[in-house]
Amino acid sequence: MPLRAKMNTPRVVIVTGGADGFGAAIVDRFSREGCKVIILDLDQVKGESKQRADQNIEFLLGDVTRPETWQNALALAQTTHGRVDVVVNNAGITHDPSPIHTKSLLEYEKTFNVNVKPVFISAQVFAPVMMQQGHGIFINITSTGCTRPRPGFAIYNASKAAVEVATKTMALEYAPAVRFNCISPAVGNTSMLQSSIRNGADSRQRLRQVEDSLPMKRLCQPVDIANAAWYLGSEQSSFVTGTTLEVDGGRGV
């Protein structure tokens, strides 16, 4: 059954990084369920393409590390739809694997800026609105790096751990009206993975090594995360808050 707000109107969902990868699959899943979806992304070409292909999707060009982007998203949601029901913080970056002593302060700042800062800004902008509405849901994408860290990714892992702890804390602060949860993917079949593996004679071997490290022997697919997001964004999870849903093929066991 499609997720509906009061008066049987479609829910309004905001997805960051929704033009590609996990985010695009999340956008498609909510749209198929009858929701109105606003994409926040810097990829104008892919974002506008998704908007043209689906009348339920709107694209808003913006940097999610900047408060004005979130204020613009709120204005668009309220002007067009009268409210916002779900915020999915999916946008994120990683870095090349190497020990922490080889990393620069700039890499640290950039990773935390993109992965953590939008979680706080989105809550500052939207949580009060959701409290006034009497309902709302935040879904933040973390990583198995929080609980099963891989060497070479100390900054990335720490940034995702910050997101997870912040999410659990805000779940306590804003209950019962607003729910906050995380999704923790394993390594995903996305452009982020492809950029880290890169092309080369050993790229296929490296990819196979990643797959073999997962008990399910395959990469996390975007649709896997989209299905989890739909569950956490629906009334099926109405008693679930402050938790992390691991979609990791058993890697966290």
Q: Can you tell me the CATH topology?
A: Rossmann fold
* CATH secondary-structure class: Alpha Beta
Helix content: 40-55%
Helix-strand makeup class: alpha/beta
Low-confidence stretches: none
Strand order of the largest sheet: 3-2-1-4-5-6-7
Query: Ends: how far apart?
Result: 32 Å
Question: What is the number of helical segments per DSSP (H or I, 4+ residues)?
Answer: 9
What quaternary form is this? single chain
Beta strand %: 15-25%
How many domains would you count in the coordinates? 1
Order of helices and strands: EHEHEHEHHEHEHHHE
CATH architecture: 3-Layer(aba) Sandwich
CATH superfamily heading: NAD(P)-binding Rossmann-like Domain
What is the overall silhouette?
globular
How many E-type strands? 7
Over all CA atoms, what is the radius of gyration?
Answer: 18 Å
Helix and strand layout, with pairings?
Blueprint: E1 12-16, H1 21-32, E2 36-41, H2 44-53, E3 57-61, H3 67-81, E4 86-89, H4 105-115, H5 117-133, E5 136-141, H6 154-174, E6 178-185, H7 191-197, H8 203-212, H9 222-232, E7 244-247
Parallel strand pairs: 1-2, 1-4, 2-3, 4-5, 5-6, 6-7
Pfam families: adh_short_C2 (PF13561)
GO molecular function: oxidoreductase activity
Family: Belongs to the short-chain dehydrogenases/reductases (SDR) family.
